[in-house]
Hints:
Layout: E1 9-12, H1 18-29, E2 33-38, H2 41-50, E3 55-58, H3 64-78, E4 83-86, H4 102-129, E5 133-138, H5 151-171, E6 176-183, H6 189-202, H7 206-215, H8 225-236, E7 247-250
Parallel strand pairs: 1-2, 1-4, 2-3, 4-5, 5-6, 6-7
Helix pairs in contact: 1-8, 3-4, 4-5, 6-7
Amino acid sequence: MDTSANGLRVLVTAGAAGIGRAIARTFVEQGARVHICDIDTQALAETKQALPTVTQSVTDVAKTADVDRLFDDATDALGGLDVLVNNAGIAGPTAKVEDIATADWERCIAIDLNGMFYCTRKAMPLIKAAGGGSIINLSSVAGRLGFAMRTPYAAAKWAVVGFTKSLAVEAGADKVRVNCLQPGYVEGERIERVIRDKAKGLGISEDEMRRRIFDSVSLREFVSAQDIANMALFLATDAGKHITGQALSICADVRYTI
């Protein structure tokens, strides 16, 4: 199985921490040239130390002017583009729908969905000019199941699936493969914050919230950022050359939501 990324030019949004950094590191280790963006300047500085060959931009993907500058930086650094990983996203508010502020809804949709569109519309001509390539969008198990008290996030992640499948049909003739990944509960700071917020909303302890989550997962464990990175590499390389239009869960089998 060929998962070499040798020579691939890769852009990873929100690539300075968590899943994004794992994806960037994995592609570098397999021979790719990688550019990342992030809104967190401290995380970018830390990533520069950890991955010195990775070029970077400070970018808020919800702002079209920032995205325009990102693609100027990326094309200057890479000389073109073969792979886009739309990883940028936020958890959004954890609350009942009547308690969600309009600004919090709009910010979640702006980053998790609109930002993906802004980046993809800039990337597509570059990937076509390269003779084809891969776009990998980050959805979530919240994009295939209902998530109470997480309606902005779930709405965006369901929309990512529709965006992915429609774009795969549109771009197939140009040899551009488009897939999305649906991570489950990924170990790290974000899931701990979600556990805390949801436990508070339900009036239960964090330990009880964590127990309920594990009861809903067949393997009774969180997945890792590296698990997501491995699948992204597979899809972007020759190993996944005939896979497109798919929503692929990496979730340890989340069967229902809490």
